Structure formats: C-alpha cells, structure tokens
Amino acid sequence: MTESTGLLASTRALAEEYDLALMDLDGVCYRGAEPVEHADEGVASARDLGMRMLFVTNNANRPPQTVADQLSSLGIPTEPEEVMTSSQAAAAVLAQDLPAGALVLAVGGAGLRSALLEAGLRVTDTAADDPVAVAQGFAPEVGWAELTEAAYAIAAGARYVATNLDSTLPTERGFAVGNGSLVAAVVNATGVTPLSAGKPEAEIFHQAVARAGGTRPLAVGDRLNTDLAGARAAGIPGLHVLTGVSDARSVVLAEPHERPSFLAVDLRGLAEPHPAPHRDPQGWWRCGAAAARVAGSEPHLELRVGDRTLDLDSDAEPVTVSLDAWRCLTAAAWDAADGGTVLTPERVPVLEVVSPR
C-alpha cells in the first residue's frame, strides 16, 4: 500500500487490506427507513472477503438492537453487538469520570437512556433532582421542555456532554434538524459548550476499535465533517462514498483534516482495489485513462481523458466523470492546495461520478 497526496492506493480489495470496517449508517447503509443502493451487496461482499463490521453511528435515538433489526430487515444481517451508537460513547465518557450510580439528566430517546443505565449511571428527566451531568442526544420528541430542563441543570453546574453535534440528519425526505441544532439552543441559553462524544471526535473511533478488537480498521462514511474528519483525528484511513451528504465536488475542495483516504461511489467499493493517482513530469495527476491538473493564472481544473482536454472552470453545468477521473481531480486539487494554490468553490463544477460497473 502506497500513499500519494493524501489518497492511498491498495492493489487488493479494501476488505482484504483491512480487517474491520467502522461503518456509518445514515447516508451509507440507509436513508431514514429506505436502504441505500447496493449497501447490502457491498457489505456482503466485504464480509465474504473476511472483513468484520462494526456499525458506528452518531444517531443516538435508538438502542443497538433496534438498529440491528433495521439493518437485518434491509438485507444486512446484523447483531446488536455489531452496533455502536454515540449514546454509548457519551455514556462511556461520563462513566470514566463519574462515580457509579451518579445521576444524569438524559435529554434524548430510549437509546440514550439505555446506554446510560448500562454504563452504571442513574437517569432523570428533571433538573429538580440535581443531576451531576446532562447528556443530550437526538430524539424526535425533544422540544422546549426537555431543552429547558437541560439549561436549568447546566446553569446549576451540571457537566454537559452531547452525543454528537451534527446539524442535520439525513432522511428519506431530505435533511432534517439534527442534534447539533438542538444543542445550539442550549448553548445559546447557557453559554456552555458541551463535550461531544460522537464523530468527528476520535474517542468514538477508539472505543469502537477497542470493542471490536480490530488491528487494521477502516472508517467508512458519507460526511466529510464527521465521518472522515473523525477518521483523520483517530489516525484511521477513511473511505468516502457518494450516497449521502458530501458530494464529489466537496471532496475535491476538502480541507486537509477532512480528506478521505479512498474514494468510491457506494459500498461496493469495499470489494475493489483502489489505485491512487501519481504525478507525471508535466504536472498531470494520472490514474487509469484519466489525468487532471490545476493550471492557469487564475487557478482552475483541467481534465484529460484520452486526447480530449476539458477546462472545467468554463463549464457551469454538472460534469460527468469516471471514478478514476474523480481521483485525479481530487489529487490535483489537494496537491495544489498543499502548495498554496487554493481553488475557490466557484472554479470547481458539480461532479457526477459514474460507477465503473
């Protein structure tokens, strides 16, 4: 395995190179109640090649059994022990510092309450009980009354931990209000910023690896600022798939701390080798039949496929590219940015990546 400008290369399928996938759920395996295309096929192929799964999610609302049941119903057979939620991560963070039986105000759903109880803590839903900590996670029923109880407890000195700070939550209808947006209301009322236990913090990844016992983990996600930033923070290679939040254009423009190590259209990429682009003497980044570079006094991307060269800066319409072309464009943009030539978003068109199948 070799490294080139942030993208890694693997001559073997990722499921053969890595023994454990830390798999995101929303936008990777499902969207709300609906399955993501080819997710079941991708997971099955990876398991056939020997890769184990631990589904690691910022969704704090549901207990692991409920999550496992949904995955199984969508054609991804899963045991509850293969699911780790940000509620479990938050409970573990609190249990490390609080005495057994400490009282925690739980602002969230059944998944958060059960995780706190399993960690040896007691749970309340009112600040009048003088809890020593507040744990806040997403649940559809969380509203003004619950947020106000949290504000009362925090103002009285309770420690404040959030399961995650995701501003949105992918659903089958689009992006819904996420836990981070609800947390923002409490922060605005109290002036206190919580410790976040979920992605992009490294802690949830470290807990997941320790639980699963993996020696060569790979993080898989759709969201640069949580899944892939968390992988970078934890020192774990990350695979980005295009089935959720962050699109191909966003990857090209990614900040260094959010950059994935591998790129794929969907989870079928787990069962494939991953070539990485390499720079030729003329400054083109090449992968397969594609090549790309950043050029011009006002920097913009150029893409070459065969004898044809496209000046992407001049094209306001979405550009359809191959997976190898996306890799080249990404490598060229990252290399330029690392050298001080940063592309502005206006100079990178929307990219529609075509699956190689």
TrEMBL record:
<dbReference type="GO" id="GO:0005737">
    <property type="term" value="C:cytoplasm"/>
</dbReference>
<dbReference type="GO" id="GO:0016791">
    <property type="term" value="F:phosphatase activity"/>
</dbReference>
<dbReference type="InterPro" id="IPR036412">
    <property type="entry name" value="HAD-like_sf"/>
</dbReference>
<protein>
    <submittedName>
        <fullName>HAD superfamily hydrolase (TIGR01450 family)</fullName>
    </submittedName>
</protein>
<dbReference type="InterPro" id="IPR023214">
    <property type="entry name" value="HAD_sf"/>
</dbReference>
<dbReference type="InterPro" id="IPR006357">
    <property type="entry name" value="HAD-SF_hydro_IIA"/>
</dbReference>
<dbReference type="Pfam" id="PF13242">
    <property type="entry name" value="Hydrolase_like"/>
</dbReference>
<keyword id="KW-0378">Hydrolase</keyword>
<dbReference type="Pfam" id="PF13344">
    <property type="entry name" value="Hydrolase_6"/>
</dbReference>
